[in-house]
Amino acid sequence: MPGERIFQIFYDEQTRSLLDPDFEPLDNSDNERPDWFEYWPMRRFLRGASLRDASHYGFLSPNFQAKTQLTGRQVKAFVDRHREADVITFSPYPCHAASFLNVFEQAEFTQPGFMHVASAYLRHIGSAVSLQTTVNHSGNSVFSNFFLAKPVFWRHWDAAAERLFRAAESDSGAMGTMLNQETPYMRDDGLAKRAQMKVFLMERFVTLLLSTMPEFAVANYPPFDLPLTSYFLPLRNEVMRLDELKIAYARSGDEALLRAYRTLQEQTLDAASRNQRRALLAK
Predict the structure, then answer these.
(1) Do residues 90 and 209 share a domain?
(2) Cα–Cα distance, 154 to 258 (Å, whole number)
(3) What angle do CA 202, 204, 205 make, to 5 degrees?
(4) What span, in angstroms and rounded, lies between the C-alpha atoms of 33 and 258?
(5) 24-27 and 87-89 as β-strands: parallel, antiparallel, unpaired?
(6) Same domain assignment for residues 152 and 274
(7) Which long-range contacts (CB under 8 A, 24 or more apart) does 261-267 make?
(8) Domain boundary among 186, 206, 227
(9) pLDDT tens, 219-245?
(10) How far apart are the first and last CA of the chain?
(11) 142 and 187 belong to one structural domain
């Protein structure tokens, strides 16, 4: 019978306290492979479960509500209205998706060197996807793995993830070294931490699949009903215009739209950086 199984991962009592009662707890308190973050419990479930073809499955972090301001009840209500979709997204911070041509360019901005690693990996597996020209927008961008999907999509995602897992685990040669290279990132609580490049690449597989496999039916929770990062708040109109330009360019291929996007992107990122600096100075 159609339905959904929406899991929320926890690592300890503190993260368990953050769980939404309308989601199913997924225990990762043993945290056998912290280097893989949320992929490890996702992999373990997908390897051991029998999935119902008509059902949606999702694996959310304990920070889901903090990032999206959505409750489990709201998520389930949206799923009820879009049961025909193969993939249902609840991607946070649409400003980050809109302000870069794609989610890989966005990662390069925050983790310098990421684009080199991601491009090298795609060549390693024989993919012809060009990360310099791929266009992502609010219709096919997902951050934080905040999505639900039917098994028809999860099978593709799992195969892509397993291939990356094996490349990183072999740790032989330049490819393994690049994937396991540590890079700093900023947590939601403002603390600087480190993670390996493979984690940031894995998180972007859902977007890569959605942007290269248009046969999947996708329902997006209205992206601009979700929170913006604070320093993008005064730039809401510019961010929405950036998204519109990318959607139009993806449909038409009109280079004038891409040029207009790049001009507005530069102006918007400069303004966001100034807002961020002012906020930091005010602390």
Answers:
(1) yes
(2) 32
(3) 70
(4) 41
(5) unpaired
(6) no
(7) 261/101, 264/238, 265/99, 265/100, 265/101, 267/238
(8) 227
(9) 999 999 999 999 999 999 999 999 999
(10) 53
(11) yes
Instruction: Report the amino acid identity of residue 260.
Output: A
62 token code pair: 């304990």
Residues 170 and 220 in one domain: yes
Q: Report residue 171 as tokens.
A: 């740790």
Supply the range of the domain harboring residue 207: 4-227
- What would the 3-class secondary structure string for the chain be? CCCEEEEEEECCHHHHCCCCCCCEEEECCCCCCHHHCCHHHHHHHHHHCCCCCCCEEEEECCCHHHHHCCCHHHHHHHHHHCCCCCEEECCCCHHHHHCCCCHHHHHHHHCCCHHHHHHHHHHHCCCCCCCCCCCCCCCCCCCCCCEEECHHHHHHHHHHHHHHHHHHHHCCHHHHHHHCCEEEEECCCCCEEEEEHHHHHHHCHHHHHHHHCCCCCEEECCHHHCCCCHHHHHHHHHHHHHHHHHHHHHHHCCHHHHHHHHHHHHHHHHHHHHHHHHHHHHC
* Longest Cα–Cα distance in the chain: 55
Q: What is the mean pLDDT of residues 140-160?
A: 98
The number of folded domains in the chain is 2
Q: What are phi and psi of 21, to 5 degrees?
A: -65, -15
> Could you tell me if 12 and 119 lie in one domain?
yes
Last residue of a domain, one of 227, 243, 259: 227
Distance, CA of 20 to CA of 279 (rounded, Å): 31
223 and 236 assigned to the same domain:
no
Q: Are residues 51 and 145 in the same domain?
A: yes
Q: 246-265, pLDDT tens digit by residue? A: 999 999 999 999 999 999 99
pTM of the model: 0.94
